[in-house]
């Protein structure tokens, strides 16, 4: 209805549009899900990426050469309702033995909402078009280094118990939800998404310490008995740690 009067359209998509995360690296030319039509498709997490890919298709079809598609990964920072990043600064700040998932050298990617917003606005103002992945940081960040940053920022005395991927999967720990940012190693491309195109177009990232500090400050404003939406409960974490130690005694 608005196609004839719209000079420029921005669609916030997601890197979940990519069809195969078992390959790496992934860039804007990598294959996306091919969902012919969403009719009859239930709104389920497993077809989220396919629906986003279909939205991209319809936008470009309707407004050819007038569409800016931005594909962020996990969007983090203060006021994130999902707690998929907040869990780690929150948990590390509590101290004690922290269950850490899989391989400490596994890369992780995400973007501070404020960095994404500022760059998106600049791209809109410049009337840029095309597809851009938008995840950070500019270099490689590992899960181990992220947890160390969390510990350094809040001065915590936490220690990390690295529990194997096989053990976690055997104990039905849900990747990315119960242990945020962790995915099975077979999804090698998930955190190896190439964002150089966006960086060349001006995308920049604030220091990780700032994102952690600001997330912690916001988290501290919530009720003391607030239950995070993501991550392990203290009881479940302790149970897994006990079983892991018994299995490796």
Would you mind describing this structure in some detail?
By secondary structure, the protein is of the alpha/beta class. It has one domain: 3-Layer(aba) Sandwich (Rossmann fold), CATH 3.40.50.720. Helix content is 34%, strand content 12%. It is built from eight helices and seven strands; from the N terminus they run βαββαββαβαβαααα. The protein has helices at residues 48-62, 87-94, 113-125, 143-154, 165-170, 196-200, 208-219, 234-247, and strands at 9-12, 67-72, 75-76, 97-101, 111-112, 130-134, 159-163. The strands form three sheets. The protein has a three-stranded parallel sheet with strand order 1-2-6, sandwiched between helices. Strands 3-5 form a two-stranded parallel ribbon. Strands 4-7 form a two-stranded parallel ribbon. Helix 1 (48-62) links the parallel strand 1 and strand 2 (67-72). The longest helix is centred in the N-terminal third of the chain and has 15 residues, at 48-62. The chain starts with 8 loop residues before the first strand and ends with a helix. The mean pLDDT is 95.
């Amino acid at each position: 209805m608005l196609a004839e009067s719209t000079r420029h359209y921005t669609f916030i998509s997601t890197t979940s549009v990519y069809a195969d995360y078992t390959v790496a690296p992934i860039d804007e030319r990598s294959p996306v899900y091919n969902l012919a039509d969403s009719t009859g498709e239930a709104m389920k997490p497993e077809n989220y990426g396919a629906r986003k890919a279909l939205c991209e298709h319809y936008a470009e079809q309707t407004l050819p050469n007038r569409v800016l598609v931005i594909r962020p990964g996990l969007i983090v920072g203060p006021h994130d309702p999902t707690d998929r990043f907040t869990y780690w600064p929150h948990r590390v700040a509590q101290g004690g033995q922290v269950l850490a998932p899989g391989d400490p050298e596994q890369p992780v990617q995400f973007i501070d909402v404020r960095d994404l917003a500022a760059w998106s606005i600049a791209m809109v103002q410049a009337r840029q078009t095309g597809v851009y992945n938008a995840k950070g940081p500019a270099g490689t960040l590992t899960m181990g280094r992220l947890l160390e940053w969390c510990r350094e920022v809040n001065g915590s005395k936490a220690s990390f118990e690295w529990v194997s991927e096989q053990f976690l999967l055997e104990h039905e720990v849900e990747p990315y939800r119960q242990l945020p940012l962790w995915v099975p190693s077979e999804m090698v491309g998930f955190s190896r998404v190439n964002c150089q195109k966006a960086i060349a177009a001006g995308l920049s990232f604030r220091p990780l310490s700032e994102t952690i500090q600001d997330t912690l400050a916001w988290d501290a404003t919530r009720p003391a008995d607030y239950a995070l939406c993501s991550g392990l409960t203290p009881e479940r974490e302790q149970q897994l740690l006990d079983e892991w130690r018994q299995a490796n005694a």
